[in-house]
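Changelog-adjacent note: as of this version, every example in the card shows the full chain rather than a window. The one below runs 462 residues end to end.
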Amino acid sequence: MNGPEEWEGYDCEGPYPPHHGGPGEPPGAAPGPPAARPRIPSPRASAENDGPLPGGPERPAPEPGRSRPASAGGPPPGAPAAPGDARPGGGRPELPHRVLTSLLGAWALAACSAEETAAVEAHLTDCASCADEALRLRDAVGLLHPADSLDLDPLLRSRVLEGCLGRRPARIPVPEWAAPYDAETAKLDALLRDMGDAEWRAPVRLRWFDGERPVHRETTAAGVLGHLLAVDGLVATALGLPDPLGDAAPTARAGPGARTRALWRALGEAPRTPALHRPWREQSHTLIRTAAFAGGGVGDLTVPYGPVQLPLRDAFLDRAFGCWLHAGDIAEAVAYPHEGPAADHLHSLVDLAARLLPRALAHLRQTGLAAPPRQLVAAGSPGRTLHLEIEGDGGGHWYIALDSPAAVGSPEHTVAHIALDGEEFCQLAAGHIVPDEAAAGSDGEREAIRDVLYATASLSRL
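Full-length structure tokens:
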């Protein structure tokens, strides 16, 4: 059956329908006078209705000077419209049954215009066979796949690679601790490829917590990418790769904030073009490739983060954490959906933050922002402990030593308990949530609970 997309268009100023002539009819045969024009074009006539059947005898050509006879059941050309062809009151003409039948599929898909929908539904009240067919088509539409977003799933690449590697493992696989960085950079790259020029200039708010209060800074999507490029450069130089800042790089002991500000000064305070997209993506590919080819011991290399140092395996997790959160900042600014990490990757990111908490608590005490230790113990011995329970994807249980980074957390020495959702905990660690407003369930020593929540927020930085 020919669908509506195959119907012929007709000139609204000429007669309807136009005269095509039949087999053997000489060109220029006079058409009949115009008849009443239906509301929409009728489907093109099929061979069964208007032409010889395949393999059958040829229909004789009409005599010269005579127009083609009208098809059976319809009025001859020039005949006045039948009284039933128009609705009472001079409304639009009714559609032929075959036209209404051909619209049932489009009606079932809700693809008809308002006028077509009204005509079909009025017809269904009077025609039992069409009503049955319409119900069958509506039921069939329910079996079709629901409409999906035209945007590719950000996790599609990871799933395809996982399937490929499951069939044929990579000769040189990506280290497990680099997999979250690989996945999050791929998701951010997909987001950036979808952005137009105006979105690169959209204002983006970077947020963090300085130990006492939330802080923010306005930049652009391009500025956020410059920040990621600059901080990833710390990992690049630890692996012996070129520093992306080049001559603009500050001193060797400069931390992430100083490096970011140096790059922004070199490019202009708020870069507004996608020029940094390609250098950042090439650097992320190079980091993953270099870590994969370097061998097992490379994870223990030291990466300086200003006054703090991290082993390379933790530095890759830190960069995955930053990439995910800043991709969320960009997605929020341009109203684009962005999913969180896979459950096993989220667990690795939570584990990194939990392992850094004793050191963060000690730093808060040095600045007078946390209570002094209550019970010092020998290094490696169990001491006062907070039980950190992370719920949902990536969840688990961690025991945080409260009085010294050298002490060991122990379930038997637990004095307080905090329960948080995994993504909520990461948002707190990013400084996107004020500690006093975190949706945390808690029990035990209030002072210990407050100090750990503030220490978690203090892990954030520019």
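Structural remarks: The beta strands are 203-209, 214-220, 302-305, 308-311, 385-391, 396-401, 414-421, 441-444.
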